[in-house]
Design goal:
Largest sheet: 10 strands, mixed
Oligomer: single chain
CATH topology of one domain: UDP N-Acetylglucosamine Acyltransferase, domain 1
Radius of gyration: 20 Å
Length: 264
């Protein structure tokens, strides 16, 4: 880590000086030696801002080229190579994984899907068809990301919390989880739910409203089952009733059956 921090502080850094360290940096991302966010012993998550800063330098010093596979991108980026020994299922060439993504053993990517630089996808996870894992997103063990789901990415500002999905969570088809959201262990996000770092979550079980914590992060509790709902909003339009979409926690429980998501 020290060598990367030293380079970040270096004035008048040149592309020639940067590129060898960048290659080592991407290898450390691929191997999981460094990551953009980490969990402390007390269960809190912290952002490694310097990792984001180094990724941004990779964009800065990159030059646009055409790769052998026809991709046109910065030469500092490109596609992550998947080795058979990694035990990763990449079910089609239409799966795109940028270099600089950690992927644990047993992870499955269904076509088409995409993972961006800085993401961390732990062992046993599933990234289903048309799903996106954005830059710096942290995906835990055995997480299922349903078809068409969007796990948002965030590089700037460097202190912003990425999307964090903890172990054994389920992200339903077509759902959208964006920066500043943490989904705790075993939580179930139903199909079509949208959660952002500024989206209040209405806990119909406990009779409370979950708002951003001291770090500006919305936290979906462990074992929560969240479905799309709506709440009335005031309007000055005569004879018109309006509502807005909100996520609602309808129950808690481990080993939740998916049929529960359809119950009122």
């Amino acid at each position: 880590m020290e060598k990367y921090l030293t380079m970040l502080k270096k004035e008048n850094l040149t592309r020639e000086e940067f590129l060898p360290e960048w290659k080592r940096f991407k290898n450390d991302l691929n191997n999981g030696k460094i990551r953009t966010a980490y969990k402390e012993q007390n269960g809190d998550w912290r952002v490694n801002t310097w990792v984001k800063q180094f990724i941004l330098l990779g964009f800065k010093f990159g030059e646009i080229i055409q790769f052998n596979d026809g991709t046109i991108d910065k030469d500092t980026l490109g596609e992550r190579k998947i080795m058979l020994s990694e035990k990763i299922r990449k079910a089609s060439s239409s799966v795109s994984i940028r270099d600089g993504v950690y992927i644990g053993q047993g992870v499955t990517f269904m076509p088409p899907s995409y993972a961006n630089i800085g993401a961390y996808i732990d062992e046993g996870a599933m990234v289903d068809s048309l799903a996106l894992v954005g830059s710096c997103a942290q995906i835990g063990k055995n997480v299922h990301i349903g078809a068409g789901a969007i796990i948002g990415g965030v590089l700037e500002p460097v202190g912003a919390y990425p999307v964090i999905i903890e172990d054994d969570a389920f992200i339903g088809a077509g759902s959208i989880i964006t920066e500043g959201t943490t989904v705790k262990k075993n939580a179930v996000i139903g199909a079509g739910v949208t959660i952002t770092g500024s989206t209040p979550i209405y806990d119909n079980v406990k009779g409370t409203v979950i708002t951003p914590n001291e770090n500006g992060v919305i936290v979906v509790p462990e074992n929560a089952v969240v479905i799309p709902g709506a709440r009335d909003v005031s309007t000055s339009i005569p004879e018109v009733k309006l509502s807005k979409s909100v996520p609602i926690i309808i129950k808690y429980g481990s080993n939740v059956e998916l049929e529960d998501l359809l119950r009122p």
